[in-house]
TrEMBL record, chain A:
<dbReference type="GO" id="GO:0034975">
    <property type="term" value="P:protein folding in endoplasmic reticulum"/>
</dbReference>
<protein>
    <recommendedName>
        <fullName>ER membrane protein complex subunit 6</fullName>
    </recommendedName>
</protein>
<dbReference type="GO" id="GO:0072546">
    <property type="term" value="C:EMC complex"/>
</dbReference>
<keyword id="KW-0812">Transmembrane</keyword>
<keyword id="KW-0256">Endoplasmic reticulum</keyword>
<dbReference type="Pfam" id="PF07019">
    <property type="entry name" value="EMC6"/>
</dbReference>
<comment type="similarity">
    <text>Belongs to the EMC6 family.</text>
</comment>
<feature type="transmembrane region" description="Helical">
    <location>
        <begin position="39"/>
        <end position="68"/>
    </location>
</feature>
<dbReference type="InterPro" id="IPR008504">
    <property type="entry name" value="Emc6"/>
</dbReference>
Automatic annotation (TrEMBL), chain B:
<dbReference type="InterPro" id="IPR008568">
    <property type="entry name" value="EMC3"/>
</dbReference>
<dbReference type="InterPro" id="IPR002809">
    <property type="entry name" value="EMC3/TMCO1"/>
</dbReference>
<feature type="transmembrane region" description="Helical">
    <location>
        <begin position="127"/>
        <end position="150"/>
    </location>
</feature>
<keyword id="KW-1133">Transmembrane helix</keyword>
<dbReference type="GO" id="GO:0034975">
    <property type="term" value="P:protein folding in endoplasmic reticulum"/>
</dbReference>
<dbReference type="Pfam" id="PF01956">
    <property type="entry name" value="EMC3_TMCO1"/>
</dbReference>
<protein>
    <recommendedName>
        <fullName>ER membrane protein complex subunit 3</fullName>
    </recommendedName>
</protein>
<keyword id="KW-0472">Membrane</keyword>
<feature type="transmembrane region" description="Helical">
    <location>
        <begin position="20"/>
        <end position="44"/>
    </location>
</feature>
Amino acid sequence: MATRSPQNQASLYVPENIAHNVKTITFIRSSMSAITGSAAGILGLTGYFGFIFYGITALFTSFLIWALKTQAKPGIYFRGRTDVWTEGVFGGLFSYVLFWTLLYGIVHGVYLSTLAEKRIIALFDNLR
Amino acid sequence: MSHLAESQSLYLDPAIRDWVLIPIMVVMVLVGVLRDQVTVLLGGGASTKKPGLKAIRETRILARGATLRTYGNHIPLSSFTSRKNFLSNAYKKGEYLKNPAAMNQTVNPMTDPAGMEMMMEGMKKNFLMIIPQSVIMGWINFFFSGFVLIKLPFPLTLRFKSMLQRGVETPDMDVTWVSSLSWYFLNLFGLRSIFTLLLGEDNAADGMRDMTAMSQMGANPSGQPQDFYKLHLAEGENLLLTPHDWELGDIEHRLLVQYGKRKPKPVSDIVDAGDSDEKSIGSSSENKGKGRRKGVYPGIVKLYDSCLRFSLGAAAIPPKLTAKLFY
């Protein structure tokens, strides 16, 4: 009984549940990357800072999943212990970039202000 | 007016934002939703036609063989052997084939009506993929080319210039200013996870997934029906090669070790048995991790736990180490 075939180790997991868990992680990551992308755009991050911000928020999200969702025991929910930290991180990057670009463009003066906006801005300037 | 103070010498017409940037995104989202709905209408992502009883038998018997191979160690040797013999014989004789007469000749997909059906499915899917993508791309190229649309917040190398500023052709313009086609591609990739949020995991909304599906299809052109007899033969051979190693072989020894009545064997494979006493199945991962860090066989403690489960009278099911997460 000293050797175990990999099949028998695999048989200890329920594949449906693992698939469901991966789905859940993907769902969390998708929404988080859209939200953090918008945040980066509104904050006006550019260049490497944006990608570093994504790394930090992804790490934070992973930590939240690890702490709240798996109760610090990812081994019960996934085959590998690193799956919680890596799953879907790269896939979320694209929607992060999309929302980052969109909100950066809209908020940070890529477009000339419209007449109404100009009037509002002038009003504020007068108030000051 | 802090945003005007930024070092930036170029501003775009806000009409570009209102009539190009946002509409492209909205249209792409809506087209994705439409694609998903149309796919459902045309009969779901999976096959529409319900397979007959014989066809189900033909595939399920394969699953039975795989199950026996995977979980065989959970039943005694005699049970395992009888199942193995039965299944491998059945595979060899083709007893569970849909059409036992067609054991030796390959099926021509053109004559088989089910094969035709499958080919039509593949064609429909391909059309659904190609048409919306090319229509949107043509629309963007026709109406929105020749001007920059948005500024990317991150720098790119000069190599991207000809790709991202196609139709603008201004030599000195910064690469971060990109045309509408780049915005289209950004949407194409970025909206994928948004579709997951909107339409669920198994949506048919984004085109990129279909492209990967199509490249896979090259191996198996347009869903040609498989030769099930060959599959059955292969499964039978796999089954015959599967060794059996009963999980409960030395269970009484392990049980005594677990309650501290006997010391673990020096050559035993149950390394962590002593200190994993009275822990639930859930904590097995902790031990597993420890074991791995010490350089012990991975999975040993899992094995131990599964034996414990059996010793406590659980049925011959795989131990459920995998719990479910909830939203």
